[in-house]
């Protein structure tokens, strides 16, 4: 798990700093998202039942705005609402790649904050909790969006 904080840092920078100059930005982001996804399966911790303060999102910069500046080509995409309902060709939804990355970054910031301010165990517990219920779907949706968007240019 020594890779967790450095991997988080590589992803969150896109929401904390506008106008990042990074070569192959999308490729690097894709690599780090896959790395975070893999790290989720390596989580091992002892439950820490201490009472800790909560993360204060109000102190964060405008993550969505910074992501939009850093990934100007990101936008909306079509989704299937129930992938298992193969006979239903009508029910589609709209996803937002900027929102996906913004939510991923916010989740990762909270994981990092909990590790650095509460305890390692609290951070890993939150990683396991938020990843399964929220972050994982955003990563899958964003990776699929990036794949579909980039297949047109190859």
UniProtKB/TrEMBL annotation:
It comes from the Bacteria. InterPro entries: DUF5063_sf. This is DUF5063 domain-containing protein. It comes from Chryseobacterium elymi.
